[in-house]
Specification:
Blueprint (H helix, E strand, L loop, with lengths): L6 H4 L16 E2 L11 H8 L3 H5 L7 H11 L6 E4 L2 H12 L6 E6 L4 H8 L3 E6 L16 E5 L11 H10 L3 E5 L11 H6 L3 E6 L12 E5 L1 H10 L7 H12 L1 H24 L3 E2 L6 E5 L5 H10 L2 E2 L12 E4 L3 H15 L4
Parallel strand pairs: 1-11, 3-4, 3-5, 5-6, 6-7
Antiparallel strand pairs: 2-8, 7-8, 9-10, 10-12
Bound molecules: 4'-deoxy-4'-aminopyridoxal-5'-phosphate.
4'-deoxy-4'-aminopyridoxal-5'-phosphate binds next to α5.
Length: 351
């Protein structure tokens, strides 16, 4: 029988998201979720939700949430695009800014593993740029692509690129620079102001990490109106559902909760760093809610597998350089101690 699937789709591997193991005894430190609960306002708004509103389609352009973001960031509402998680925003950026015929997608290697998958889905070329031996900034002279996804702070390395480097790059780069700030609330610096200064910059954010709302799927980007309008032209008709819009709106109004849980994560990050260093791990200075660590013997892959047997889930990325490292989400302090206990067992270092 004739193959019914498009050839380019047959050839795809598809994105494999981090595992979502269930069960109360699982220590889940593999997908950079927040161990704390979101704003209690969210609970209240869900109880008050108007059933009649659910019978209607959602606002197609997320007006009320965008008003709050505009106010928070002092930008125009016309400079904001809202999506079903920032993953959707990233996918739309390729569809809007990369020509099918001859266009290309750039990103650092290593960085977020979704970018090349999205480029493959759209059947466009990828132009990865290798980071230096310490996972620091490195950009070849005259480098070009249609879009460059610049993850800052970077994932999975947890490091923040200096803002001067980012700005210098933006000024000389001929395409659209999408600065992916998924983890910026855990960092010491943001590039948000570049989105209003430069016509080729979009800064993308999510409520999945610092707002503890990965389950609602809400992300947005900020930038020049011309770029934003292009994204609105190609999005799905009602890309963000009514419940998500309401939850996002009240969560974004409650700065206090976001700041409190972000501070708590940063404190736990310090504890986890010290505990892992005491076990002989090399821990890179994280500006995110996860750590990028080089473990002692028996090495990254083996430790990853042994932790999984003990119901502790972290992330290991196969690859020349990444294969020697592990990415561990900063959990609660109780989760950190369960991780440490399991590691002591694996490393034969029981206290
Ligand atoms: N960008 C980066 C760098 C990420 O690590 C993630 C989380 N997987 C995302 C974007 C996607 O975030 P969201 O949940 O908003 O789709």
């Amino acid at each position: 029988m004739k193959n019914l699937i498009r050839k380019s789709v047959q050839a795809l591997d598809g994105y494999v998201p981090g595992e979502q193991p269930q069960g109360s005894d699982v220590v889940k430190l593999n997908t950079n979720e927040n161990p704390w609960l979101c704003s209690v306002e969210v609970h209240d708004i869900l109880r008050e939700i108007d059933m009649a509103a659910l019978a209607k389609y959602p606002d197609p352009v997320c007006t009320e949430v965008r008003k709050v973001i505009a106010e928070n960031l002092s930008v125009g509402i016309g400079n904001i695009f809202a999506g079903n998680g920032s993953d959707e925003v990233l996918a739309l950026c390729i569809r809007a800014f990369v020509e099918r015929d001859g266009g290309s997608v750039g990103f650092f290697d290593p960085s977020y593993s979704l970018y090349p998958v999205l480029a493959n889905i759209e059947d466009v070329e990828t132009r990865p740029v290798a980071l230096d031996e310490n996972f620091g900034w490195q950009m070849p002279d005259g480098y070009e692509s249609s879009v460059f996804f610049l993850t800052n702070p970077n994932a999975p390395t947890s490091l923040l690129f200096p803002k001067e480097k980012v700005e210098e790059f933006v000024c000389s780069f001929p395409g659209v620079v999408v600065i992916d700030e998924a983890y910026v609330d855990f960092a010491s610096e943001t590039c948000m102001d570049l989105a209003t200064q430069y016509k080729n910059v979009l800064v993308c954010r999510t409520l999945s990490k610092s707002y503890a709302l990965a389950g609602i799927r809400f992300g947005y980007c900020v930038g020049d109106k011309e770029l934003i309008d292009a994204l609105y032209k190609i999005k799905d008709s009602y890309n963000v559902n009514t419940l998500t819009q309401e939850v996002a709106r009240v969560a974004l109004l409650d700065h206090g909760t976001m700041e409190a849980i972000t501070t708590a994560v940063k404190n736990s990050r310090k504890l986890m760093t010290e505990e892992l260093q005491a076990l002989g791990f090399d821990v890179l200075p994280s500006e995110t809610n996860f750590l990028w660590v080089k473990p002692p013997k028996p090495g990254a892959k083996k430790i990853f597998e042994e932790l999984k047997k003990r119901n502790v889930y972290i992330r290991w990325f196969e690859g020349d350089r990444t294969g020697d490292y592990l990415r561990i989400t900063v959990g609660s302090d109780a989760q950190t101690m369960l991780l440490v206990e399991a590691l002591e067992d694996i490393l034969g270092k029981g206290k």
